[in-house]
Fold this protein.
Amino acid sequence: MEVTEEGVALTFKNTTNQDQTVNWSVPSVIAYSGSEPVVQGNGYREYVYIRGDLYGWFGNYNNAPAPDKPEQKNWSEIGYNMAMFNSSDFNWDTWVTENKAGVDCKVQAVKSNDKVYIEFTLGKAKSLTSFPYTEDGSFYISLSGENCVLSEITMATYSNIVPETPPTDNPPVTDNPPVTDNPPTTDDPADPPVTGDAEILTGTAWWTGNQVGKNYPLKGDGTLDLFIGYIGGLPDGAFSVELLSDGNKYITTGSDINIWTAQGATGEVDGATEPMAAITAGHKYKVSVTRQGQNFTITYFDMTDNKEHCKLTAANTNMGEDVNIHVMAQVGKYMVSKSDFDMPEVNVTTPKPLAPYPIVLPTPEPLPTLPPADENATPEPTPVLEPETITGTEWWAATNERSRDYVLKGAGTLDLYVTFVSTTDSNGYGAFNVELVSDGNKYITTGSDINAWTAEEGKGTISGAVNTGSTIIPGHVYKISVKRTNYDFTITYYDLTDNKEYCTMEIKDTNQAVDVNVHVMAQVGKYIVSQKAPDVVAPSESATPAPSADPSASPDPSTTAEPGNTEAPGTTDPGDKDPGTTDPGTDNPAENPSDDDDKKDNETKKTMKVSDITAKAGKKKVTGKLSVKGTKVTVKIGSKKAKNAKVNGKKFTFTASSKLKKGTKVTIKVTKSGYKAVTKTVKVK
């Protein structure tokens, strides 16, 4: 809709998807100018993005500097304001449930006194956002959303939304729903009594259903101490201590030993570790926030065990002089106070459930026992399908091709042969994946860069994935054996051209179904996938033969050549053949590049690393540090296709299309000419 001085309005109904539990799965309003009424259209300038859960941010026009406009980073500094209107009994959990049942919504917008005002009503949540707009030309708003359905969109009668007195500046909230300075304590008679400034905060899941405590000010340099007792509730508890200044500069720390900056805050954070550390129910923690100039040190100290839990730092920040500090209950129940207190007795063995009624979970059915199979037999699909050629241009590009599915039924072994035909990479780099999937959404992915992970609903314990980014060789043929024993899988990559094992990875205790589909995905390079070894792979007499599932079919791979046999494999006289063009069927590999050249290339390639990777649940950004400049970084979220990250010097930033979910696998791939590729995998915290 075009926004005018007369004002415009529309109504619609929102129905959030039934499987959603978070407050941001709702409609949004995008406000922009341009020469056409289309988001990302000609002349597009995005001014603000307003989400229905009382959250928003200014758009790309305000973030990007221009010759006539300096870069702006602060919401209030550029005249933005968001006022929120809710009843005193407003409840976010109830609001999320109502959105799934379907709620009525209304959006109104108007130009007035060199400003644009947008009122957004989503059920019982309402916001009024205003910002400067003095340009000539058309201004528009469009509807969008995440994990929801918008229906019955109808033009409506505009009613005045411009306040007679502008509302007090109220910048957008964080991903957590807004709370008052005195959040309600639980109404549980079993809770210990609270005195002074003490409060009880409860959280049921990371970033949803949590309570945020009151703000404690830290003015200028000095130290602020908070005492936090883990008094019960859910197991595997966690809480966060967050610093806030200037309305939108956030430094968030967690008892899981993590730290990051958000929204307008900048700085160099350190001290976060993997895996996440656990806190103990019944223990009391002292969290000290110390400021010296623009540097902060946040120390978590376990007073019960009398030892430091962790120390986190944020250096060279842009925080304002006055900083507010509060506690967020993520999982569990906590007593929080600025003064020390006696820890109440806590029943850590049988914590009282938070729900007011018993929850009876169904007894999970055990996985079916697979039928007995001859583990030494390699079933050959009938009929044998024709070989196929697949090509990939870069990691997880949309144009990358994958092979057909080959079915492994029950226990046994499935063999596939992958010929690395060629690559357009100037360094000869190539990579492919072998992926297992069952029930449509249980994934196990392995890679020729010696990596493996489970995705979506796939589960299992992985070993042997060393993430070395090892390079496969053009012209070589690789045999991939997928062996299944009950619910354990062993995936072996074997270089048939060099007659040696390339890598072996194991995935145990999986939840794969009886029938598993196996396919090959080309990432970088051109490949031929077949069910039988190509004739070009006839091994020389002195080479160690390839492994076989049938022990009687070939000698053990560890068998050495007979004494006295000094002929190196692949060095027979090529005769009058042109080097590098050996005919199929011979045991003469191409002489260009030679094995020696490959070895020299590997020896001359430098090493690099990626570190300090941050991927936080409820956030969209993945960040990290690089050891060298000028790299290319791709990021893959779960089973989604990898996309390029933004690299700035020795740092990279990747913005996902939706909020990250806890436990999702994130794979970062770093490449640069003259360096060995690096792949690192982390889980969203």
Remarks:
- Residues 106 and 121 are 5 Å apart (CA to CA).
